[in-house]
Design brief:
This protein has 536 residues and is α+β, with helices and mostly antiparallel strands. Helix content is 28%, strand content 28%. 47% of the residues are buried.
């Protein structure tokens, strides 16, 4: 914990030090920005809440430098089966086979307190990031081209601070969102569930399913998730005529769990009653103040995308704030944050709702019809769904519409570099725009333009970079292209099949991201003003 002195001036202030806030602070810290991150709580909440994240998130953790340190706190996510009204398998959801497209297992279960501890340890090592625990935000307003805000410290004293930007990563009840008066839009899903986390005695783990299970049973829909170690999670839908009083008493919980375990065979670690919501903030930005994570959206858990959505927010916003603060892009680049993330979250949340409604059908007749429909779709057997294929790419914002693969996540292969030896592809450039291409696209004019813009060029094969598995080459070839211009958050801006196409693509990017040199003077003043507000 740091006792912040009054008058602190920062590039970015981050409200909330949960997984999203800590990730954003870490990403901004790696960019070398001066950051303040604060939280009302004095420490990490020591019980499990989120129990999973995906390979997009692990790629962000890789960028912060903690992917290896997370190993004791994570495990690959198990495949899932959906059981219908008669106990038959009506759907299977599994992962893609190796080689994994992003260099990491597609999905992980996790011990959230352990993940947060590793994140915070990484942030604590960054001299340019100040962390203030036990500090509560008591006011924030736009002022002098940035944000003036006040924090109440653990002793009750209030201190003024300022930043070029403030990001509210402060949870579903978000004081930042409420202070801005931003409303939440309902996407029409509000269903009460009970979540129970158990630590199972070693001798009884083998009695439990080895895979994740969705029990799509009208009498009581429920979910079972295999978590790391001896941690197992159950989620039970609450019934309409069921009394809410005493819902979390041990007697009622053990009655719910009796199908699998008895008292003495496991310990109840945590139990909570939630209403699973589908909510999204109507605005994600008000001037220099942004929302991210649960403060901006809340997603039903059926697709395992709750925390992932917030981490994508952090990955999207971090590089854009850095580009604007360093004068590499105009202020209008920041408008693309909500333009990209909000539609993506809406699409993903609708998918989660569909999965939830499939699981939670209470009418026996409609449930049987659901089962029959799924089995018919599978040709008489359970259809197979690849989990990663369900997550959409970007359709909006800073992508070259009409270019093949634009808005898709760029793969990350294991490579051997003459300079770095064996490593993952991202390690060669870090969080920067980069050109990745076949040698046939290489040309002096493209190299000169890339150098003038500070854009690394990676030529697979002829540039001392050899793929172990051909992942990137095959992915590009599948779309009939030879190279890609990739964003710092690993989304493809656009692709090309020649040096001339690549040059045109880079000029298009410069125009779209609002480089100050390309804007009218009245537009280009915003970024320098922000930098002065931060004291840079």
């Amino acid at each position: 914990m740091t006792a912040l002195e009054g008058g602190g001036r920062y590039d970015v202030a981050v409200a909330g030090y949960g997984p999203v806030g800590a990730t954003l602070a870490g990403l901004l810290g790696r960019h070398g920005l001066r950051v303040c991150v604060f939280d009302k709580a004095a420490g990490i909440y020591d019980q499990p809440r989120a129990v999973g994240f995906d390979h997009d998130a692990m790629r962000l953790f890789q960028r912060i430098g903690i992917a290896g340190a997370l190993a004791p706190h994570v495990a690959p996510f198990r495949n899932s089966v959906y059981l219908g009204t008669d106990g038959q398998v009506i759907q299977r959801v599994r992962h893609i086979d190796p080689p994994y497209p992003l260099g990491w297992a597609p999905n992980y279960t996790c011990d959230q307190p352990g993940v947060e501890a590793v994140l915070r340890q990484a942030v604590a090592r960054m001299d340019n990031v100040q962390v203030a625990l036990g500090h509560e935000l008591v006011g924030a307003r736009e002022h002098a081209g940035g944000v003036a805000f006040e924090l109440r410290d653990p002793a009750g004293e209030v201190h003024p601070h300022s930043a070029a930007y403030l990001v509210g990563c402060d949870g579903a009840s978000s004081p930042v969102r409420r202070a801005l008066g931003i409303e939440l839009e309902s996407l029409d899903y509000d269903v009460p569930w009970i979540v129970v986390d158990l630590q199972v005695e070693a001798g009884f783990l083998d009695r439990l399913p080895a895979t994740n299970v969705q029990y799509c049973e009208p009498a009581r829909p429920c979910t079972y998730v295999v978590c790391p170690g001896n941690h197992r999670r159950w989620e039970f839908m609450m019934l309409e005529d069921e009394p809410r009083e005493g819902a979390l008493s041990e007697d009622r919980l053990w009655r719910l769990l009796s199908r699998w375990l008895q008292p003495g065979q496991a310990r109840i670690w945590r139990a909570a009653a939630y209403t699973f919501h589908a909510l999204i903030a109507r605005q994600w930005r008000r001037g220099p103040i942004f929302l991210a994570g649960d403060s901006a959206h809340q997603t039903p858990p059926f697709l395992g995308q709750g925390m992932c959505q917030g981490l994508r927010d952090a990955g999207n916003l971090a590089w854009k704030l850095n580009a604007v603060l360093r004068g590499e892009a105009g202020e209008r680049l920041l408008d693309s944050y909500a333009a990209e993330r909000r539609p993506h979250v809406v699409r993903t949340t609708h998918l989660a709702k569909e999965m939830g409604r499939l699981v939670s059908e209470r009418d026996p007749g409609r449930a049987k019809a659901r089962d029959a429909g799924l089995l018919a779709r599978g040709g008489g057997g359970a259809p197979l769904v690849i989990r990663q294929d369900m997550i959409p790419g970007l359709r909006d914002g800073l992508v070259a519409t009409g270019s093949a693969l634009a808005g898709e996540v760029f793969p990350q292969s294991l490579v051997v570099s003459d300079e770095r030896g064996e490593c993952l592809l991202d390690e060669l450039t870090g969080a920067r725009f980069r050109l990745v291409m076949d040698a046939s696209c290489d040309a002096p004019e493209l190299r000169a333009l890339a150098a003038s813009l500070g854009t690394p060029v990676l030529v697979l094969g002829d540039d001392g970079i050899r793929e172990r598995d051909g992942l990137v080459r095959n992915w590009l070839a599948s779309a009939g292209v030879l190279g890609a211009l990739v964003r710092p958050d690993h989304y493809v801006f656009g692709t090309f099949a020649s040096a001339q196409e690549a040059v045109r693509l880079m000029h298009r990017l410069q125009s779209m991201k609002g480089n100050p040199d390309d804007l009218e003077p009245s537009q280009s003043r915003a970024a320098p003003d922000r930098r002065r507000a931060a004291g840079a």
